[in-house]
């Protein structure tokens, strides 16, 4: 058991490292610096650093040690004394459990226009005033980042937010905007897309799929037997069963969101439908991700989140014989990746993994050069047609 857990830890670290490399490869130089500096800004608190406010602000990230580049950046401000280990009051644990990006970051769907959704997961023992101060600090950090033209949203996540399996929880971002969330769908997306920037590993990843129904009991057993140490992991809880209520709420949200058409919206909508409408393909995609991770199937596009979503949606649409919609989602996927394969001047580069994967997909779809040129030119008629067909699809499924 212990040896198996150590192997899973190594796989988790390998996948995370691969995702970090891929995330950086698709970022501008400016965005790379910001992505790298986020842990520094949340681990330290100093008047000369962005995000500083007066007060006893809870800072410090568990297990975080700045690398050479981060230390060199700090040295520019002559605050070397902050390199010493951080102690927070009398707690052995630091306030921030970890920082994680989620969504398209690190996937084939990431491009120069992608925004950043960052989860800052903190200890549940922070009091109301400490949470308020940390929220203010995050707001100032976001404003500083926005001054560089980078769109980032910082979400403060209490480690116990999802443990009660509340179908309608409230999540706040750094600008004090609150929104209702569907906890299963949000956790599903987080677990299969997250990149650990700093902090603890995710406990859910190493819990066997067959123990999902008894997740909390199984975790407590591992703690009691000393197989796992509780303070080494971020435990956001297990995944329950997607309810009709949660499916309907999410569907209504997607219908409302269709007024701001984006290529990823249709993929997410059909993925949601596949979860609920088909028992064979209805398993949450994060569960499929974990199955492949535990089985050692890490070569599969590096378990890329967008490729896994495309595969699931493809299987579902083939199963229901909707090949017209399948063609639309493939086109949307191609446009989202935004690698123009018909451009002769845009030669294939061996280290461009996104172009390599997309090329293989296009070959399997049996697309010709004419279709690639139409999509690469983003013909308005074609895009309008996809948007029209997609809205019809949503309206059809709303009744």
Automatic annotation (TrEMBL):
GO terms for molecular function: adenylate cyclase activity. It is an enzyme of class 4 (lyase). It comes from the Bacteria. It holds the Pfam family Adenyl_cycl_N. Transmembrane segments: none annotated. Residues 5-205 form the Adenylate cyclase class-I N-terminal domain. Keywords: Lyase. GO terms for biological process: cAMP biosynthetic process. Signal peptide: none annotated. InterPro entries: Adenylate_cyclase_1, Adenylate_cyclase_1_N. Its EC number is 4.6.1.1. This is Adenylate cyclase. It comes from Candidatus Arsenophonus lipoptenae. The lineage of its organism: Bacteria, Pseudomonadati, Pseudomonadota, Gammaproteobacteria, Enterobacterales.
